[in-house]
Specification:
It is built from two helices and ten strands. An eight-stranded mixed beta sheet has the order 8-10-6-5-2-1-7-9, with no helix packed on it. Strands 3-4 form a two-stranded antiparallel ribbon. Among the domains are: 63 residues, no CATH class; 99 residues, Immunoglobulin-like (Sandwich), CATH 2.60.40. It has 289 residues and is mainly beta.
């Protein structure tokens, strides 16, 4: 049976070709370019076309400078690059050293120096009844000493570790050499409270601090004893400093800290005494921070 030809709808005519974009005018190589005009013309839409949604608010665009590039950040406070405070030091190794590629730290010898040492004893009996041996070393070299951890030996004996501060040429370095049990301290605080005033009552508490220092060594020693007068930032709380049985070698400063230099013969005992009064409104309670 003959097949019927399928009926088709007529096809729509093709759209007219788009008009070519206007050619840009040729410009001389040395002609100035007005970028503001170019941008303004490029941003303008034809009058017959709307590029904004109905009800949409116009948003302005601002241009900002890119943030400056940051250098490396060192998070370990013990790194020499941190404790040096940004200063640049160059050291030369005394010999060639092969440093393997590994995450472990490696020690490189730089120099060996010998400087005179001035040992001394220091104590803060209010914190701990023990004297600590320390040493002052003057940097007599031609390069600064960078801060960082340091191992301390007395002769061949290891006495501990400490923290070395960055010290310039001619500066003093203090090194801790450990506690000395042959120098003993006994600290006593003796309070006495009374009330004064006729119309406005004030409580006044007097404190006397006594510190016994005993040298159990077979040789004479000099001990720097650090103490402190209390201070207050409360207007109604007044502190009156009393007398010192021994003249302070340092202070007292604005924070009340003072130091006494005590000279002790073998087996000798000396007592340091100082006093102060605290005046405040009646029924106020005192708390030490």
């Amino acid at each position: 049976r003959p097949k019927r030809a399928a009926s088709r709808a007529p096809m729509a005519p093709p759209p007219p070709p788009m008009e070519p974009a206007p050619a840009m005018a040729e410009m001389a190589d040395d002609a100035p370019i007005d970028f503001e005009d170019s941008v303004a013309e490029g941003m303008v839409a034809p009058a017959s076309v709307s590029t904004r949604r109905p009800g949409a608010a116009a948003v302005g665009l601002d241009l900002f400078e890119a943030p400056p590039a940051r250098g490396p950040v060192f998070h370990d406070p013990s790194l020499p690059a941190v404790v040096a405070g940004g200063l640049d030091y160059v050291y030369s190794s005394t010999t060639r050293v092969t440093v393997p590629s590994s995450p472990e730290q490696h020690t490189v010898p730089l120099s060996a120096e010998a400087y005179p040492v001035e040992p001394f004893y220091e104590a803060s009996p209010a914190l701990e009844p023990t004297a600590f041996l320390k040493a002052t070393v003057k940097n007599r070299g031609d390069k600064p000493l960078l801060g960082g951890p340091v191992d301390i030996f007395v002769g061949a004996d290891y006495v501990g570790s400490g923290q070395l501060e960055t010290t310039g040429v001619g500066g003093d370095v203090q090194l801790p050499l450990g506690a000395d049990e042959d120098i003993k301290f006994v600290r006593r605080l003796i309070p006495k409270t009374k009330t004064e005033g006729v119309f406005s009552k004030d409580d006044i508490t007097g404190y006397t601090t006594e510190i016994d220092v005993v040298n159990h060594k077979r040789r004479a020693v000099s001990v720097r004893v650090v103490e402190q007068f209390p201070i207050s930032d409360v207007e109604d709380l007044k502190i009156e400093r009393g007398k010192l049985s021994l003249k302070a070698s340092e202070g007292p400063d604005d924070t009340g800290i003072m130091a006494f230099q005590v000279e002790l013969k073998p087996g000798e005992k000396k007592t340091i005494e100082f006093s102060y009064r605290i005046k405040r409104p009646a029924n106020w309670k005192l708390y030490q921070r």
